[in-house]
Amino acid sequence: MKPYSQLSKEELTALKEELEKQFEDVKGKGLKLDMSRGKPSKAQLDLSNGMMDILNSQVDLVSSDGVDCRNYGILDGISDARKLLADMSEVPERNILIYGNSSLNVMFDTVARAMTHGFLGSTPWCKLDKVKFLCPVPGYDRHFGITEFFGIEMINVPLLPTGPDMDMVEKLVAEDPAIKGIWCVPKYANPTGISYSDETVRRFAHLKPAAEDFRIFWDNAYSIHHLYDDKRDVILELLNECVKAGNPDMVLKFISTSKVSFPGSGIAALAASEANLEDAKKYMRVQTIGHDKLNQLRHVRFFKDMQGMYAHMRKHADILRPKFEKVWEVLDRELAGLEIGTWTKPVGGYFISFDSMEGCAKAIVAKAKEAGLVLTGAGATYPYGKDPKDSNIRIAPSFPTVEELEVAVEIFVLSVKLVSIDKLLEA
Length: 427
Ligand code: PMP
Known about the structure:
Keywords: Aminotransferase, Transferase. The chain is an alpha/beta fold.
Protein backbone atom coordinates (compact mmCIF):
# COMPACT_ATOMS: atom_id res chain seq x y z
CA MET A 1 0.00 0.00 0.00
CA LYS A 2 1.10 3.54 -0.78
CA PRO A 3 2.25 5.71 2.13
CA TYR A 4 -0.43 8.24 3.06
CA SER A 5 2.12 11.03 2.73
CA GLN A 6 2.30 10.32 -1.00
CA LEU A 7 -1.43 10.74 -1.55
CA SER A 8 -2.78 14.02 -2.94
CA LYS A 9 -5.16 16.19 -0.89
CA GLU A 10 -8.02 15.02 -3.10
CA GLU A 11 -7.14 11.36 -2.58
CA LEU A 12 -6.84 11.87 1.18
CA THR A 13 -10.19 13.68 1.34
CA ALA A 14 -11.93 10.91 -0.62
CA LEU A 15 -10.37 8.26 1.59
CA LYS A 16 -11.40 10.16 4.69
CA GLU A 17 -15.03 10.20 3.58
CA GLU A 18 -15.00 6.44 3.04
CA LEU A 19 -13.31 5.73 6.39
CA GLU A 20 -15.69 8.05 8.21
CA LYS A 21 -18.61 6.00 6.95
CA GLN A 22 -16.98 2.83 8.27
CA PHE A 23 -16.31 4.56 11.56
CA GLU A 24 -19.92 5.70 11.91
CA ASP A 25 -21.04 2.12 11.26
CA VAL A 26 -18.99 0.66 14.13
CA LYS A 27 -19.86 3.60 16.36
CA GLY A 28 -23.53 2.81 15.79
CA LYS A 29 -23.02 -0.64 17.28
CA GLY A 30 -22.62 0.92 20.75
CA LEU A 31 -19.67 -1.32 21.66
CA LYS A 32 -17.83 -1.34 24.97
CA LEU A 33 -14.28 -2.63 24.61
CA ASP A 34 -11.23 -2.20 26.80
CA MET A 35 -7.56 -2.53 25.80
CA SER A 36 -6.32 -0.19 28.51
CA ARG A 37 -4.78 -2.28 31.29
CA GLY A 38 -2.62 -5.38 31.34
CA LYS A 39 -5.11 -7.51 33.21
CA PRO A 40 -5.24 -11.28 32.74
CA SER A 41 -8.51 -12.53 31.24
CA LYS A 42 -11.03 -14.68 33.07
CA ALA A 43 -9.73 -17.77 31.26
CA GLN A 44 -6.24 -17.04 32.62
CA LEU A 45 -7.52 -16.53 36.15
CA ASP A 46 -9.38 -19.83 35.90
CA LEU A 47 -6.02 -21.57 35.41
CA SER A 48 -5.20 -20.94 39.07
CA ASN A 49 -8.58 -21.87 40.54
CA GLY A 50 -7.11 -25.11 41.85
CA MET A 51 -5.24 -22.97 44.35
CA MET A 52 -8.54 -22.27 46.07
CA ASP A 53 -9.07 -25.98 46.78
CA ILE A 54 -5.66 -26.49 48.33
CA LEU A 55 -6.27 -24.94 51.72
CA ASN A 56 -9.36 -26.05 53.60
CA SER A 57 -10.31 -27.10 57.11
CA GLN A 58 -9.20 -30.68 56.47
CA VAL A 59 -5.60 -30.04 55.45
CA ASP A 60 -2.49 -29.50 57.50
CA LEU A 61 -1.73 -25.79 57.54
CA VAL A 62 1.82 -26.26 58.80
CA SER A 63 4.62 -25.52 56.32
CA SER A 64 7.40 -28.03 55.59
CA ASP A 65 9.68 -26.12 58.01
CA GLY A 66 7.17 -26.61 60.81
CA VAL A 67 5.53 -23.18 60.82
CA ASP A 68 1.83 -23.01 61.66
CA CYS A 69 0.82 -20.68 58.84
CA ARG A 70 -2.33 -19.61 60.66
CA ASN A 71 -0.37 -17.79 63.31
CA TYR A 72 1.85 -14.70 63.61
CA GLY A 73 5.53 -14.71 62.83
CA ILE A 74 8.21 -15.51 60.23
CA LEU A 75 8.98 -12.04 58.94
CA ASP A 76 10.98 -13.22 55.90
CA GLY A 77 8.40 -15.72 54.64
CA ILE A 78 8.14 -19.50 55.04
CA SER A 79 11.17 -21.29 53.67
CA ASP A 80 9.38 -23.05 50.78
CA ALA A 81 8.06 -19.70 49.55
CA ARG A 82 11.52 -18.17 49.92
CA LYS A 83 12.96 -21.00 47.83
CA LEU A 84 10.29 -20.63 45.13
CA LEU A 85 10.60 -16.85 44.85
CA ALA A 86 14.42 -17.02 45.03
CA ASP A 87 14.40 -19.47 42.12
CA MET A 88 11.98 -17.25 40.23
CA SER A 89 14.32 -14.29 40.87
CA GLU A 90 17.41 -16.38 40.00
CA VAL A 91 19.15 -15.56 43.29
CA PRO A 92 20.30 -17.65 46.28
CA GLU A 93 17.78 -17.95 49.13
CA ARG A 94 19.83 -15.67 51.35
CA ASN A 95 19.08 -12.87 48.89
CA ILE A 96 15.29 -13.03 49.00
CA LEU A 97 12.77 -11.34 51.28
CA ILE A 98 9.09 -12.19 50.92
CA TYR A 99 6.58 -9.35 51.15
CA GLY A 100 2.81 -9.15 50.76
CA ASN A 101 0.49 -9.29 47.79
CA SER A 102 1.97 -6.72 45.39
CA SER A 103 5.40 -5.77 44.06
CA LEU A 104 4.24 -2.25 43.27
CA ASN A 105 3.55 -1.92 46.96
CA VAL A 106 7.14 -3.03 47.70
CA MET A 107 8.49 -0.46 45.25
CA PHE A 108 6.36 2.27 46.83
CA ASP A 109 7.52 1.23 50.29
CA THR A 110 11.15 1.17 49.19
CA VAL A 111 11.01 4.72 47.84
CA ALA A 112 9.11 5.81 50.98
CA ARG A 113 11.80 4.20 53.14
CA ALA A 114 14.57 5.98 51.24
CA MET A 115 12.70 9.26 51.67
CA THR A 116 12.28 8.97 55.42
CA HIS A 117 15.24 6.80 56.48
CA GLY A 118 17.71 6.56 53.59
CA PHE A 119 19.47 3.38 52.45
CA LEU A 120 22.16 1.77 54.63
CA GLY A 121 22.67 4.85 56.79
CA SER A 122 22.71 7.44 53.99
CA THR A 123 20.91 10.79 54.35
CA PRO A 124 17.14 10.37 54.01
CA TRP A 125 16.13 11.71 50.60
CA CYS A 126 13.55 14.04 52.13
CA LYS A 127 16.40 16.02 53.72
CA LEU A 128 18.00 16.72 50.35
CA ASP A 129 17.18 19.75 48.20
CA LYS A 130 16.68 17.66 45.13
CA VAL A 131 16.19 13.97 44.34
CA LYS A 132 16.06 12.77 40.74
CA PHE A 133 15.26 9.46 39.03
CA LEU A 134 16.06 8.31 35.52
CA CYS A 135 13.04 7.04 33.65
CA PRO A 136 13.56 4.97 30.52
CA VAL A 137 10.74 5.93 28.12
CA PRO A 138 8.26 4.77 27.15
CA GLY A 139 7.79 3.03 30.50
CA TYR A 140 5.34 1.87 33.16
CA ASP A 141 2.95 4.60 34.28
CA ARG A 142 2.70 3.34 37.87
CA HIS A 143 6.48 3.58 38.37
CA PHE A 144 6.33 7.20 37.31
CA GLY A 145 3.32 7.65 39.59
CA ILE A 146 5.40 6.63 42.63
CA THR A 147 8.29 9.00 41.95
CA GLU A 148 5.91 11.84 41.06
CA PHE A 149 3.99 11.27 44.33
CA PHE A 150 7.19 11.78 46.35
CA GLY A 151 8.16 14.90 44.42
CA ILE A 152 11.16 13.20 42.82
CA GLU A 153 12.21 14.87 39.57
CA MET A 154 12.03 12.47 36.64
CA ILE A 155 14.44 12.58 33.71
CA ASN A 156 13.52 10.82 30.47
CA VAL A 157 16.08 8.40 29.03
CA PRO A 158 15.35 6.83 25.63
CA LEU A 159 14.66 3.10 25.71
CA LEU A 160 16.52 1.50 22.79
CA PRO A 161 16.02 -2.05 21.46
CA THR A 162 18.89 -3.11 23.76
CA GLY A 163 17.56 -1.32 26.88
CA PRO A 164 18.01 2.21 28.21
CA ASP A 165 20.51 4.44 26.39
CA MET A 166 23.49 3.44 28.55
CA ASP A 167 25.80 6.20 27.28
CA MET A 168 23.31 8.66 28.71
CA VAL A 169 22.70 6.65 31.92
CA GLU A 170 26.45 6.32 32.66
CA LYS A 171 27.09 10.00 32.05
CA LEU A 172 24.13 11.29 34.06
CA VAL A 173 24.65 9.10 37.14
CA ALA A 174 28.38 9.85 37.22
CA GLU A 175 27.81 13.60 37.01
CA ASP A 176 24.84 14.24 39.25
CA PRO A 177 24.70 13.08 42.90
CA ALA A 178 21.00 14.06 43.03
CA ILE A 179 20.21 11.10 40.75
CA LYS A 180 19.29 8.36 43.21
CA GLY A 181 17.63 5.74 41.08
CA ILE A 182 16.43 4.41 37.76
CA TRP A 183 13.24 2.49 36.93
CA CYS A 184 13.87 -0.63 34.84
CA VAL A 185 11.65 -3.39 33.47
CA PRO A 186 14.47 -5.51 32.06
CA LYS A 187 12.46 -8.27 30.43
CA TYR A 188 9.49 -7.89 28.09
CA ALA A 189 9.34 -4.24 29.18
CA ASN A 190 6.07 -2.48 29.79
CA PRO A 191 5.06 -1.26 27.18
CA THR A 192 7.60 -1.98 24.40
CA GLY A 193 8.22 -5.66 25.19
CA ILE A 194 11.98 -5.32 24.64
CA SER A 195 14.50 -7.18 26.82
CA TYR A 196 17.84 -5.73 27.90
CA SER A 197 20.96 -7.06 26.17
CA ASP A 198 23.79 -8.70 28.13
CA GLU A 199 25.95 -5.66 27.46
CA THR A 200 23.30 -3.37 28.96
CA VAL A 201 23.06 -5.53 32.10
CA ARG A 202 26.86 -5.56 32.47
CA ARG A 203 27.03 -1.79 32.01
CA PHE A 204 24.39 -1.45 34.74
CA ALA A 205 26.48 -3.60 37.07
CA HIS A 206 29.55 -1.43 36.42
CA LEU A 207 27.87 1.96 36.87
CA LYS A 208 29.84 4.50 38.88
CA PRO A 209 27.18 6.76 40.34
CA ALA A 210 28.09 9.99 42.08
CA ALA A 211 25.45 9.14 44.73
CA GLU A 212 26.59 6.33 47.06
CA ASP A 213 22.92 5.49 47.71
CA PHE A 214 22.01 5.22 44.03
CA ARG A 215 19.84 2.14 43.36
CA ILE A 216 18.73 0.35 40.21
CA PHE A 217 15.02 -0.43 40.66
CA TRP A 218 14.91 -3.66 38.63
CA ASP A 219 11.27 -4.63 38.24
CA ASN A 220 11.29 -8.10 36.74
CA ALA A 221 7.50 -8.29 36.50
CA TYR A 222 7.57 -10.39 33.31
CA SER A 223 10.48 -12.73 34.06
CA ILE A 224 8.75 -15.96 33.00
CA HIS A 225 5.99 -14.52 30.83
CA HIS A 226 6.96 -15.93 27.44
CA LEU A 227 4.47 -16.18 24.56
CA TYR A 228 6.33 -18.91 22.69
CA ASP A 229 8.13 -22.10 23.62
CA ASP A 230 10.77 -21.77 20.94
CA LYS A 231 11.36 -18.00 21.04
CA ARG A 232 12.33 -16.67 24.42
CA ASP A 233 14.32 -13.74 25.67
CA VAL A 234 16.93 -14.54 28.29
CA ILE A 235 18.57 -11.79 30.32
CA LEU A 236 21.67 -11.80 32.48
CA GLU A 237 21.00 -11.90 36.22
CA LEU A 238 21.89 -8.46 37.56
CA LEU A 239 22.53 -9.11 41.27
CA ASN A 240 25.26 -11.60 40.44
CA GLU A 241 26.75 -9.20 37.87
CA CYS A 242 26.73 -6.44 40.50
CA VAL A 243 28.47 -8.73 43.00
CA LYS A 244 31.15 -9.56 40.42
CA ALA A 245 31.58 -5.86 39.63
CA GLY A 246 32.03 -5.02 43.33
CA ASN A 247 28.67 -3.19 43.51
CA PRO A 248 26.50 -5.71 45.41
CA ASP A 249 24.26 -3.07 47.02
CA MET A 250 23.40 -1.13 43.87
CA VAL A 251 20.44 -3.23 42.75
CA LEU A 252 16.98 -3.86 44.20
CA LYS A 253 15.08 -6.52 42.29
CA PHE A 254 11.29 -6.70 42.53
CA ILE A 255 9.15 -9.63 41.55
CA SER A 256 5.67 -11.03 42.09
CA THR A 257 3.39 -13.84 41.07
CA SER A 258 0.66 -11.37 40.10
CA LYS A 259 0.44 -12.47 36.49
CA VAL A 260 1.23 -16.07 37.33
CA SER A 261 -1.53 -16.74 39.86
CA PHE A 262 -3.99 -13.99 40.84
CA PRO A 263 -3.17 -10.29 40.43
CA GLY A 264 -3.62 -8.61 43.79
CA SER A 265 -3.54 -11.96 45.59
CA GLY A 266 -0.10 -13.21 44.66
CA ILE A 267 3.23 -13.11 46.50
CA ALA A 268 5.73 -10.28 46.08
CA ALA A 269 9.41 -10.34 46.94
CA LEU A 270 12.53 -8.23 47.05
CA ALA A 271 15.82 -9.76 45.88
CA ALA A 272 18.95 -7.89 46.92
CA SER A 273 22.26 -8.10 48.80
CA GLU A 274 22.08 -9.31 52.39
CA ALA A 275 22.96 -5.80 53.57
CA ASN A 276 20.07 -4.30 51.62
CA LEU A 277 17.68 -6.95 52.93
CA GLU A 278 18.75 -6.33 56.54
CA ASP A 279 18.14 -2.64 55.95
CA ALA A 280 14.68 -3.37 54.53
CA LYS A 281 13.85 -5.67 57.44
CA LYS A 282 14.54 -2.94 59.99
CA TYR A 283 11.59 -1.14 58.47
CA MET A 284 9.44 -4.20 57.85
CA ARG A 285 9.81 -5.36 61.44
CA VAL A 286 8.05 -2.22 62.61
CA GLN A 287 5.53 -2.32 59.81
CA THR A 288 4.18 -5.85 60.30
CA ILE A 289 4.51 -8.99 62.43
CA GLY A 290 4.51 -11.00 59.24
CA HIS A 291 2.83 -11.26 55.84
CA ASP A 292 0.11 -13.67 54.73
CA LYS A 293 1.68 -17.11 55.19
CA LEU A 294 -1.48 -18.98 54.22
CA ASN A 295 -1.19 -17.38 50.80
CA GLN A 296 2.48 -18.37 50.67
CA LEU A 297 1.55 -21.95 51.57
CA ARG A 298 -1.20 -22.05 48.96
CA HIS A 299 1.22 -20.91 46.25
CA VAL A 300 3.94 -23.35 47.27
CA ARG A 301 1.57 -26.32 47.35
CA PHE A 302 0.00 -25.33 44.01
CA PHE A 303 3.18 -24.70 41.99
CA LYS A 304 5.61 -26.90 43.97
CA ASP A 305 8.70 -25.62 42.12
CA MET A 306 9.84 -23.68 39.06
CA GLN A 307 9.00 -26.61 36.79
CA GLY A 308 5.43 -26.32 38.02
CA MET A 309 5.45 -22.60 37.40
CA TYR A 310 6.90 -22.96 33.89
CA ALA A 311 4.20 -25.52 33.01
CA HIS A 312 1.57 -23.11 34.33
CA MET A 313 3.02 -20.22 32.30
CA ARG A 314 2.72 -22.30 29.14
CA LYS A 315 -1.03 -22.44 29.75
CA HIS A 316 -1.10 -18.64 30.09
CA ALA A 317 0.88 -18.37 26.85
CA ASP A 318 -1.60 -20.60 25.01
CA ILE A 319 -4.35 -18.12 25.92
CA LEU A 320 -2.33 -14.95 25.32
CA ARG A 321 -0.53 -15.87 22.09
CA PRO A 322 -3.60 -15.88 19.79
CA LYS A 323 -4.54 -12.47 21.18
CA PHE A 324 -1.19 -10.89 20.37
CA GLU A 325 -1.26 -12.56 16.98
CA LYS A 326 -4.75 -11.21 16.28
CA VAL A 327 -3.60 -7.66 17.04
CA TRP A 328 -0.55 -8.07 14.79
CA GLU A 329 -2.64 -9.62 12.01
CA VAL A 330 -4.99 -6.63 11.88
CA LEU A 331 -2.22 -4.04 12.27
CA ASP A 332 -0.13 -5.71 9.53
CA ARG A 333 -3.10 -6.03 7.20
CA GLU A 334 -4.46 -2.52 7.71
CA LEU A 335 -1.47 -0.34 8.40
CA ALA A 336 1.66 -1.91 6.86
CA GLY A 337 3.19 0.38 4.26
CA LEU A 338 1.04 3.42 5.11
CA GLU A 339 3.83 4.99 7.17
CA ILE A 340 1.41 6.32 9.76
CA GLY A 341 2.52 4.07 12.63
CA THR A 342 4.95 1.43 13.88
CA TRP A 343 4.38 -1.28 16.47
CA THR A 344 6.39 -3.77 18.49
CA LYS A 345 6.30 -7.57 18.20
CA PRO A 346 7.63 -8.87 21.52
CA VAL A 347 7.88 -12.58 22.33
CA GLY A 348 6.60 -12.13 25.87
CA GLY A 349 5.03 -9.80 28.40
CA TYR A 350 1.65 -8.13 28.28
CA PHE A 351 1.89 -5.24 25.83
CA ILE A 352 2.31 -4.02 22.30
CA SER A 353 3.64 -0.50 21.96
CA PHE A 354 2.33 1.60 19.06
CA ASP A 355 3.94 4.80 17.80
CA SER A 356 1.76 7.01 15.64
CA MET A 357 2.85 10.00 13.58
CA GLU A 358 3.94 12.83 15.87
CA GLY A 359 1.14 14.78 17.47
CA CYS A 360 -1.54 12.13 16.87
CA ALA A 361 -1.67 9.82 19.91
CA LYS A 362 -4.07 11.84 22.08
CA ALA A 363 -6.44 12.33 19.15
CA ILE A 364 -6.33 8.60 18.28
CA VAL A 365 -7.20 7.58 21.85
CA ALA A 366 -10.06 10.11 21.89
CA LYS A 367 -11.33 8.96 18.49
CA ALA A 368 -11.32 5.28 19.54
CA LYS A 369 -13.26 6.21 22.66
CA GLU A 370 -16.03 7.72 20.51
CA ALA A 371 -16.60 4.22 19.11
CA GLY A 372 -16.51 2.59 22.55
CA LEU A 373 -12.88 1.43 22.69
CA VAL A 374 -10.94 2.39 25.83
CA LEU A 375 -7.16 2.58 25.43
CA THR A 376 -4.48 3.53 27.99
CA GLY A 377 -4.42 7.35 28.07
CA ALA A 378 -1.94 8.81 25.58
CA GLY A 379 1.06 10.15 27.48
CA ALA A 380 0.67 7.62 30.32
CA THR A 381 3.88 5.87 29.26
CA TYR A 382 5.89 9.03 30.04
CA PRO A 383 6.69 10.80 33.32
CA TYR A 384 4.10 13.43 34.24
CA GLY A 385 1.87 11.98 31.49
CA LYS A 386 3.76 14.06 28.93
CA ASP A 387 4.83 12.31 25.77
CA PRO A 388 6.98 14.98 24.06
CA LYS A 389 6.08 13.63 20.63
CA ASP A 390 2.47 12.71 21.47
CA SER A 391 2.94 9.46 19.58
CA ASN A 392 3.08 6.47 21.98
CA ILE A 393 0.04 4.31 22.70
CA ARG A 394 0.14 1.16 24.83
CA ILE A 395 -2.01 -1.71 23.58
CA ALA A 396 -2.98 -4.33 26.16
CA PRO A 397 -4.42 -7.39 24.39
CA SER A 398 -4.78 -9.72 27.38
CA PHE A 399 -8.24 -8.96 28.74
CA PRO A 400 -10.67 -9.03 25.77
CA THR A 401 -11.50 -12.26 23.94
CA VAL A 402 -9.98 -12.85 20.47
CA GLU A 403 -13.37 -11.99 18.92
CA GLU A 404 -13.59 -8.73 20.86
CA LEU A 405 -9.99 -7.92 19.97
CA GLU A 406 -10.68 -8.27 16.26
CA VAL A 407 -13.34 -5.53 16.54
CA ALA A 408 -11.27 -3.46 18.97
CA VAL A 409 -8.25 -3.39 16.68
CA GLU A 410 -10.47 -2.55 13.68
CA ILE A 411 -11.68 0.49 15.62
CA PHE A 412 -8.10 1.30 16.56
CA VAL A 413 -6.80 1.22 12.98
CA LEU A 414 -9.75 3.26 11.70
CA SER A 415 -8.96 5.84 14.40
CA VAL A 416 -5.27 5.85 13.45
CA LYS A 417 -6.10 6.31 9.77
CA LEU A 418 -8.62 9.10 10.32
CA VAL A 419 -6.44 11.08 12.72
CA SER A 420 -3.38 10.67 10.46
CA ILE A 421 -5.32 11.91 7.43
CA ASP A 422 -6.46 14.98 9.39
CA LYS A 423 -2.83 15.63 10.37
CA LEU A 424 -1.65 15.34 6.76
CA LEU A 425 -4.45 17.55 5.47
CA GLU A 426 -3.55 20.17 8.08
CA ALA A 427 0.10 20.26 6.95
N1 PMP B 1 5.53 -3.89 37.40
C1 PMP B 1 5.18 -3.86 36.11
C2 PMP B 1 6.19 -3.53 35.07
C3 PMP B 1 3.85 -4.14 35.75
O1 PMP B 1 3.51 -4.10 34.46
C4 PMP B 1 2.92 -4.46 36.76
C5 PMP B 1 1.49 -4.80 36.45
N2 PMP B 1 0.88 -4.15 35.44
C6 PMP B 1 3.34 -4.43 38.09
C7 PMP B 1 4.65 -4.17 38.38
C8 PMP B 1 2.38 -4.68 39.20
O2 PMP B 1 2.80 -5.76 39.93
P1 PMP B 1 2.08 -6.21 41.30
O3 PMP B 1 0.76 -6.75 40.96
O4 PMP B 1 3.02 -7.22 41.84
O5 PMP B 1 1.97 -5.00 42.18
